[in-house]
Structures are given as structure tokens and as C-alpha cells.
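Handout, section B. The chain below has 380 residues.
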Amino acid sequence: MELERLHEEIEQIDGELGELFARRMELCADIAREKAARGIFIPDRHTERVARSRFREQAGEKLESYAGVLYATLSDVSRSYMATVTNGASPQSARIAAALEITPALFPEKATVVCQGVEGAYSQIAVEKLFREPTISYVSSFEAVFAAIAGGFCQYGVLPLENSTAGSVNKIYDLMMQYNFSIVRSVRLKVDHNLLARPGARIEDIRDIISHEQAISQCAGFLRGYPDIRVTAVENTAVAAKMVAESGRNDIAALSSRSCAELYGLHTLASAVQDMGNNHTRFICIGKNLEIYPGADRTSVMLTTPHRPGALYSIMARINALNINLTKLESRPLPDRDFEFMFYFDLDTPVYSPRFIQLMNDLEHLCETFRYLGSYSEIV
């Protein structure tokens, strides 16, 4: 009975808190309108600090730190609501609404697409999984893919973003900070690495193995079995296969796809040598313009936070409060800014959800910088 009584008392307090919260937000809205009428747009940080200190003291020493977290959350929510009251939908929300209006109902079957590597690369396989009749151009670097999109030379670019075994492709995240683009779709590709050599070569003859650094990482266990073989990274797994085919040597092999064996006339010395059988790479398809196709249920954003304690927590708390699933969080150092980072988020939320729009509005107000990269669906 005592436990039931305690639960009932908490329920009563929660009800009172809910009513007080609603009243507090009404007052915040009134303050926002009054400030807007007076042309006051600078937050009163001094008043907020005094109120936070008083709130912590009232909670008592044992609960002081918890009260600080609660008040910080209240302040963030209040600022977001006040901005919505005075500004309405954010510019980003308007941009998303416009993209939903003008994007065609069907993802294109034909397109000019650029990817890194040469024919036979995993990126090419990803392109052909995304588009039925692509016209593919190959470039030598990931940056050249971004540059081709920025310059309008191709409609879309396809890039590897992360691997289930080796992790994120950090170079891609670094380049994201330098270029403007939108993600329009993604695809998850099963990756099998095979040891390929010229016909007549034997595995005991091999002295050199070449491949992309990610493939080398994904096959680390296999390579440890051959400690005397020199392993060298090249720009692409298909480039590695082509180099072996053109080398004239029987003591060199490539870690590459099965399709490259047929394409470049190579012999398979060992099949599926990656450490994990469930080895997948996720590729993103990027474009110059924002396109949001029907069925978009994943959103990617990039942001930086104010350089103060709890800034990232405020964003995570907002995502949690809206019951939106965070599927990926990546951080990369900001150039020329010591110990400050850019954060990349993947969010599992339909673009049509009111919670999605609310989060986009909130993030614009919470973040120091905020970039909406796109909403899209993923092919598995």
C-alpha cells in the first residue's frame, strides 16, 4: 500500500508539473511576442544565469546538479518555442517543403553518374543497383566526385560512406564540410573480397598484395596468415585488379571483387577472404540540388554546437524527446579550430512526420551551424 501511495503522489505532482509547464510556455510565447514588437532579438543570458542558479539552490545540495540539467533543458525548449512563435517555420523547413513539392514521384532510371575508380569498382556495382540505365564516368579521387557534382558535370555521384567491418570512410566526411550537396538515396551493398592474380600464378608465389585501404582493413585476418607478403594500398579495389592484370607479374595479387576477375582476365586464388561474412558497405548518392523522393524515411544532417558544456547533450535530448531514432553519429575535427568538431547525424524518421519538421526547426536554433543534407530511402 505504501508503494501505491507513493506512485499516486508522484502522478499528482506530474500532473501539476504538466500544468505548470504549459503555463510557463505560454508566458515564454508572450515574452517572445513582446520582444519582437520592441525589436529585441538578443537572448538575456544574464537573467537566465541568475534564474538557473536560483533553481539549483532551491533544489538543495543533493539535487543541485540534476536541477541544473532540468533547467538547461527547460531553457532550450523555451528558446526553441519562442523562436517558432515569432519566426514561424524555419527557412530550412520552407526549403524542405519546396523540395517535396517539385521532386518527381519516381526516382530516375537514367542518369549521368560519377564515381571513384575504374570499371569493376564496388562503386560501379552500387551505381547499377541504384539506376537501371546509368551513364557512368570514373574519376581518380573522392574529391573529384564532389567537384563533378558541384560543377554540374554529372547529375549524381556515388560514394562509399561506411563499412560494417572497417567503419566510416573518414575522407568522405571531411569532404562533406567543403562542398554543398544533397543526399538523394543510399544503397547497402554486400561486399566479398577475393584474392586475384594472373592466370598461372599460385598463392605461394605471391610477394605483393594491393588493394584499397578499406579492403585491406576488412581482410586483416586473412593477411595475417601471410606475414611475408607486402601489402600496399592503392586508390581502389578495381584499380588494384587492373594493375595486376597489366603488371606482367605472377608474384602480385589484388583484393578485389569477383566481377573484376572476369573483367580483367584474372584467376581467383582465394574467395571471400574478408574477416566477416556479413560484410556490407553503405554508399550514398549525392546531387547538387535538394531532391526528396516519396518514401524518404532517413535524414542526414551536419552541425556544429556552441563551444560550451552540455551543447551536444541538448541536441541529443531533443532527438530523444521527439522519439526519433538516431542511427549514426560521427564526429570529425574542424579545420583550423582546436578541439572543436563537426557532428554528422543519421536520423530514422519519415520526412512527412510533424516530429521531423519540429526537429529541423529546433536544430536550426540550437546549433552554431546546421546543414540539412537530405531525406531519402535506402536500398538494401
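Note. The longest helix spans residues 2-38. Compare this with the example in section A.
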